[in-house]
Design a protein that fits this description.
Radius of gyration: 22 Å
Structural class: alpha/beta
Strand content: 5-15%
CATH superfamily of the largest domain: Spore Coat Polysaccharide Biosynthesis Protein SpsA, Chain A
Bound molecules: guanosine-5'-diphosphate, magnesium ion
Largest sheet: 8 strands, mixed
CATH class of the largest domain: Alpha Beta
Strand order of the largest sheet: 3-2-1-4-7-5-8-10
Distance between the termini: 31 Å
Number of strands: 10
Shape: globular
């Protein structure tokens, strides 16, 4: 039986009663951008689903910048009806609340848990979740993310978008190639943040009751995708155009997110070993929506910082690398970290530091695949606690990102995409190494 809802949630659910389709928006300090997201979502619900009972819900962290006020004060549904010349059968309902923490942890995942609970209580057929820092969302996104569920019988819709070649580095270096190699599904954006989920899959998510601190934060996206795959749910992708959102620089902003995503992956890889051990190769996942040609705006990344962080990682984490990686992999990454340091020194030596040249440093695809696989095996063997494994992996991620971004610096998006695909293929080719290491480690020790 579902656990009782907290009072604020219960009140909102009682007021709305039932709904067929819901858009959920998690937020934390997004006053500057969430108004546009809420308006686009409302317009999408009203325009594309005029016969359904729609609801828009925002689960906010209690942001001090007035995020929730922006949502509440956004033009009401009749504004949308007026500008779109639509007369929906049912009035759009809105909910905005501060979500409760999960065991003292608040984060994107905790916000999504609240959104799942609302969706289940309202018995929606389709839930669409979208990020609140999106600039490029259009009303059509709601149709693209909900349509495959309502019209096509799918349970999980992952986004497919054009992102700048420097954006989405956790996706490009880990979640895409690893999801593809482990489960055999070419889902290009497993942690894109904008998803469609069926009512059945919402129930399944809540039944898992799997709210670790990482899943309650940024681990939630890969958790949703992997849980859908491992549960045997029907998965597809929707072409959304460009993803433009608040920029992040990997070296400055993405360490904690990387750790949360990786810790979640390591746990799920252990849990679902029976689902991936026998998978060889991969295949395409159906994609819906009309293809668009869009070029997202450029995103600057501090490559020097990434190279230096990799080199420093050798000093700070080198001993952990020796423990968690196979001896050959450990020796190689120690060398690569020195190379990274040398490349950074050369670039910084000029009077004004310059970005390193393409070709100044390379962390090969196969070496990176082995690093990730060695860490999977180390987690399986319980060589070190997962938190320490992922902390030691962060500088290696920085090194791999530096290499990839250097490689694609002079390339167009299509050529950059080819480099990401080539790396994904390397993960598939090296997978027997993972399987051998995993099986050699035997059943997980107690
Ligand atoms: N409720 C809540 N939402 C969060 C929190 N952190 C991030 N989010 C939301 O999660 C979404 C994705 O966050 P963002 O920082 O843009 O991550 P990225 O684009 O995946 O790198 C945005 O809608 C954020 O507002 C949090 O602590 N609480
Ligand atoms: Mg974002």
């Amino acid at each position: 039986m579902p656990s009782p809802l907290p009072p604020a949630l219960r009140d909102a659910v009682e007021r709305v009663g039932r709904a067929d389709i819901m858009v959920g928006i998690p937020s934390f300090r997004n006053a500057a951008t969430i108004g546009h997201v809420a308006r686009a979502a409302q317009a999408g619900l009203v325009q594309y689903f005029p016969d359904l009972r729609p609801v828009l819900a925002n689960a906010d962290a209690g942001s001090p910048d007035g995020t929730q006020r922006v949502v509440v004060e956004t033009e009401p549904p009749d504004y949308v009806e007026r500008i779109l010349l639509v007369r929906p059968r049912n009035r759009l309902q809105r909910i905005s609340l501060t979500y409760p923490e999960v065991d003292g942890v608040g984060g994107k995942g905790a916000a999504l848990r609240t959104l799942f609970e609302i969706a289940r209580a309202l018995q929606v057929q389709a839930l669409v979740v979208v990020d609140s820092d999106l600039r490029s969302i259009l009303p059509e996104w709601i149709e693209l993310l909900a349509g495959p569920i309502l019209k096509g019988g799918f349970d999980f819709v992952a986004p497919l978008y054009a992102r700048h070649k420097n954006d989405g580095t956790i996706t490009n270096t880990v979640t895409y190639p690893l999801t593809r190699a482990l489960y055999g599904l070419r889902i290009r954006q497993p942690i894109g943040g904008d998803f469609g989920v069926s009512g059945d899959l919402v129930d399944h998510y809540l039944q898992q009751d799997d709210w670790t601190p990482e899943v309650s934060r940024f681990g939630v996206d890969i958790w949703m995708t992997t849980t859908a795959i491992a549960g045997g749910f029907a998965v597809c992708q929707a072409r959304l155009g460009a993803k433009v959102h608040d920029p992040k620089d990997p070296g400055a902003d993405l360490g904690p997110m990387f750790s949360q995503v990786l810790a979640t992956i390591l746990r799920l890889t252990e849990r679902h070993a029976d689902r991936w051990l026998g998978v060889r190769g991969s295949h395409d996942v159906p994609a819906y929506g009309f293809e668009r040609i869009v070029e997202p705006p450029p995103l600057e990344v501090d490559l020097l910082r990434l190279l230096e962080a990799f080199q420093h990682g050798r000093l700070a984490q080198g001993e952990l690398w020796d423990r968690m990686l196979a001896p050959a992999t450990a020796a190689l990454v120690r060398e690569l970290a020195s190379d990274a340091g040398a490349a950074a020194d050369r670039a910084a030596r000029a009077d004004a530091p310059r970005p390193p040249e393409p070709g100044a440093f390379s962390f090969p695809d196969e070496a990176w695949a082995r690093v990730i696989y060695d860490v999977c095996v180390a987690a399986h063997r319980r060589t070190l606690p997962v938190e320490r494994l992922v902390a030691a992996l962060v500088p290696l991620y920085f090194g791999r990102v530096a290499s990839l971004l250097l490689e694609v610096r002079e390339l167009n998006s299509e050529q950059a995409e080819a480099a990401v695909k080539r790396q994904a293929r390397a993960f598939e080719l090296v997978k027997p190494y993972l399987v051998a290491g995993w099986e050699e480690a035997g059943a997980a020790p107690a």
